Amino acid sequence: MPPCVAAATGHRGPRLRAPRGIAGALRLENIALAFLAQLQPDAAISGMALDWDQAFARAALRLRIPLVCAIPCDEIEQTSRWTAGAAAEYMHVLRQATEVHRIGTQLAFNKACLARNEWMADRAHVVAAMWDGDRHGGTAHCVRYAKRRGVPVVNLWGLQL
C-alpha cells in the first residue's frame, strides 16, 4: 500500500461555532481523531494555526501518527497575538512533532501562511478541511489549491455544529 499523508486546513475562533475553551477544543480533537483513526495515514501535516490545525496535530500525536508541523514563520511571530496558554500549547505540540518546517520566513505573514498552505497540499494525499464554504481567506485558498493539484479534500465542517 502506498504511503498516505493527511494535511489539515480550517477556520479559527468564533467562525467555527464550536464551544469556546476546552469543550470546543475537545470537540474538534474528537473529529480529527475519528478522521485519522479511519484513514490511518503514515503522517499528518498541521499548519499549527489555532483551533482546527492544532486539534488535528494533537489527534495525530494521540494516535502516534508522525506529525509534521508546517509553520509559516518563526514560533514567536506566529504566536505573538495569542494568549500565553495558547502559545505554551503550541510550543508543547511543536516539541513532540517528528518534523518542523518553517515555510515562509522571508515573506510577509499573510503570504507566508498561503505559502505554508501550498506546501502542505503539495505533500498531502488528502486534506481534512474544517471549512464553511466561504470563498475568501486562507482555508478557501488551501482547499482550492489542493483541488487544483488533484488532492482530495474531505470537508468535516458539518460534524462540528
**Rg for CA atoms:** 14 Å
Helix content: 40-55%
What fraction strand? 15-25%
Number of helices: 6
Structural class: alpha/beta
The largest sheet has its strands arranged as 4-3-2-1-5-6
Sheet bearing the most strands, described? Answer: 6 strands, parallel
Show unreliable segments.
Answer: none
Mean pLDDT over all positions:
90
What shape does the CA trace take? globular
Question: How does this model look, in words?
Answer:
- The protein is of the alpha/beta class.
- The protein has helices at 21-39, 52-62, 75-79, 84-96, 109-123, 138-148, and strands at 5-10, 43-46, 67-71, 99-102, 126-130, 153-155.
- A six-stranded parallel beta sheet has the order 4-3-2-1-5-6, sandwiched between helices.
- Helix 5 runs parallel beside helix 6.
- The longest helix is centred in the first third of the chain and has 19 residues, at 21-39.
- The model has no long low-confidence stretch (mean pLDDT 90).
Q: Summarize this, please?
A:
By secondary structure, the chain is of the alpha/beta class. It contains 6 helices and 6 strands, in the order E-H-E-H-E-H-H-E-H-E-H-E. It has a 6-stranded parallel β-sheet, with helices on both faces.
